[in-house]
């Protein structure tokens, strides 16, 4: 079953909204778009904020409607296994859909000021490694952290993360490895 969503204007420009009730855990959309390298021209200027990082120097440029999913520091959705936007809680019709961009950013100097307005707003969107530990754990427990970040955490960059975060990252890597061959493009 395809979840019905709609792109319309919001205070961030364009945003993605639910046009029907979405159950927690449901797949909202699959991100699709061309792959680009860190040096690609799309990785500069205003298009840069649309890119989704999927590896240390690998990105993709999502087509609409995925391109218009905005960031929130208290999101109702998350990116699972690189390409799938899933609902982290029940989402009501006409509610805007967000994910936390920091769950896909690592080893990248890009950042942006955040105006999401949530009480838990961090004020800036940047790398996963700079999130507070409890936020890292929450996203890892919900399995909505880019697999390459989990891999980094467990391969040589361990000192950046606490032991509980590393343990959660390891379990995410195990799952990612079993699924990734299917998604290789
Ligand atoms: Zn925020």
User: Residue-averaged pLDDT, rounded?
Assistant: 87
In the CATH scheme, the class would be: Mainly Beta
Q: Approximately how much helix is present in the residues?
A: 10-25%
Largest β sheet strand count, sense and barrel closure: 3 strands, antiparallel
Bound molecules: zinc ion
Number of helices: 3
Specify the overall morphology. Answer: globular
Query: Which runs of at least 5 residues are low in confidence (pLDDT < 50)?
Result: 179-185
CATH topology: Beta-clip-like
Structure description:
The chain is an alpha+beta fold. The chain has one domain (5-183): SET domain (Beta-clip-like). The protein is 21% helix and 22% strand. The protein is built from three helices and twelve strands. It has helices at 133-141, 147-154, 163-183; strands at 5-10, 13-18, 27-30, 35-37, 52-53, 58-60, 70-71, 77-80, 84-87, 98-99, 112-113, 124-125. The strands form five sheets. The protein has a three-stranded antiparallel sheet with strand order 3-9-8, with no helix packed on it. Strands 4-6-5 form a three-stranded antiparallel sheet, with no helix packed on it. Strands 1-2 form a two-stranded antiparallel sheet. Bound molecules: zinc ion (ZN). Zinc ion is lined by residues 73, 114, 116, 118, 121-122.
Question: Could you write a compact summary of the structure shown?
Answer:
This protein is of the alpha+beta class and 185 residues long.
């Amino acid at each position: 079953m395809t979840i019905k969503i709609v792109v319309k204007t919001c205070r961030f420009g364009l945003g993605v909204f639910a046009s029907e009730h979405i159950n927690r855990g449901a797949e909202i959309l699959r991100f699709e778009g061309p792959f680009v390298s860190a040096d690609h021209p799309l990785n500069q200027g205003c298009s840069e904020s649309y890119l989704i990082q999927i590896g240390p120097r690998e990105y993709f440029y999502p087509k609409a409607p995925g391109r218009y999913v905005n960031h929130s520091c208290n999101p109702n959705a998350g990116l699972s296994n690189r390409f799938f936007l899933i609902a982290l809680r029940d989402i009501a019709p006409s509610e805007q859909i967000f994910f936390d961009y920091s769950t896909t950013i690592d080893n990248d100097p890009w950042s942006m000021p955040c105006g999401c307005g949530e009480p838990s707003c961090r004020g800036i969107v940047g790398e996963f490694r700079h999130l507070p530990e409890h936020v890292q754990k929450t996203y890892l427990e919900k399995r909505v952290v880019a697999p390459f970040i989990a891999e980094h955490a467990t391969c040589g960059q361990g000192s950046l993360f606490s032991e509980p975060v590393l343990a959660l990252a390891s379990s995410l890597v195990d799952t990612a490895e079993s699924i990734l061959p299917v998604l290789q493009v």
